[in-house]
Amino acid sequence: MRLRLEPFGAWARLESMPAVVALDREGVRALGIDGGERWLHGAPPSPPIEVHLAVTQKCGAGCEGCYLDARPDGFEPALEVMLARLDVLRDAGVMTVAFGGGEPITRDDLGVLADAARARGITPVLTTSGLGLSPAKLERLRSFAQVNVSYDGVGAAYAAVRGFEGGRAAETAIGMLARAGMRVGVNIVLTSQTLSSLPETLRHARSLGASEAQLLRYKPAGRAATLDYLARRLTPEQVDAFPALLRSLTEEHAPSGFSLRIDCSMVPFLAGDPELYSSPKTLERAGIFGCEGGQALAAVKVDGRVAPCSFVPSTELPAEGLVHGHEEDPELRWWRAYPGLAAEPCASCAIASVCKGGCKAVSTFLLGAAGPDPECPRVRAHRETSVARGAA
Amino acid sequence: MEPVVRTPVDGDSVTRVRLGHGANCSSIGSVVDTLFVTSLLGGAIFAAVLGALGNEPIEIVGPAPAKGSGEKDAEKRADAKDAR
Fold first, then answer.
1. ipTM of the shown complex
2. Fewer CB within 10 Å: N-end or C-end of chain B?
3. Is the CB of residue B31 less than 8 Å away from at least one CB of chain A?
């Protein structure tokens, strides 16, 4: 296992099973290790354990809601630049690097980058649209621990999210990767128009050979940062029903080994479920991550700047400075401090330690500044109560 | 240098278990299976985690402290390797 000492104890990435676990100090001591200076009062916060690394801004798909505003002639850093960034991630003790773009498989040296991550002790994973995945390109993906294909839905659902008919290409890619023996997942962006097709989409992805699905909230970033977002986001009724839907889908798929993931921005939706809301320790123990910007997560964009996540603007911190700059960068410090400074109803929320205030990309777009996530059911109820009181 | 003694990790010391590789490049994801599936399956996963913690060789990674006990840290790294 790869163990990184933390103020709370340590993160350990296991080798015999795909898992990252947090240990308290007693657990670390049981391994025969003492935290030394990392356990002293006032020890600096740690760099992220997962980094989303944009390897290109090139992409010909032209998805309507591309959060990066990727284009066919987008910027692409040279191989040696990317290798240097991987050096920094190694030095920071990053455990997982998720390669994205743009469309990463446009890079001929993608396999070299994956091998380089492995050589540095980092688990490389990849997201692709699957467009243009040829047998030769597939061979370059062998070093990735998992490849996720963007697959927003069966039939018309894909086009409803992306704005073009790419579903067949995604399905072909899922099948090719699975038949090649690679672990393949699907990324499914949920919109109000496509949520109803989610059960069918999951079944179809599974039938094609996918072993995992990550459900993603539609976010107002890049080309999606328009008023159209208001029509595409999940409705309040869909948000309220989401935990029950998630429960039934998990019960259907988990017994056969098909896993479901939710992204960090969907964690606020769990606040609407009485059982989950009353079990913050269960959420923590299950490894649920809410907004981890400035903490366990960072993004390195194609320009080499570090961002709290892929959906928000970069900080001034260059990737080369991540190891110690992560501690000192004022914006990342603000992101770390935010959960402790959050206003009501986040301040009194039982799952605030997991959710950490919801998605700041969403709240900044809707409110003009980061604040309690307006689409969280608890925040919505709080606002409605405040309005009612004001009217009275 | 004294040999490092490993003892079984108590289940209560495992405060978070994040399953899977996490292959999305834009937002950090969390497997929700263990939130909803039977306690039997959750228990089996947890037992596998504890088994791995007890058996896998350890490599310490991450940045060295910016200042302070570099030698002590190096000793600890060496100790951890001895434990393999």
1. 0.90
2. N
3. yes
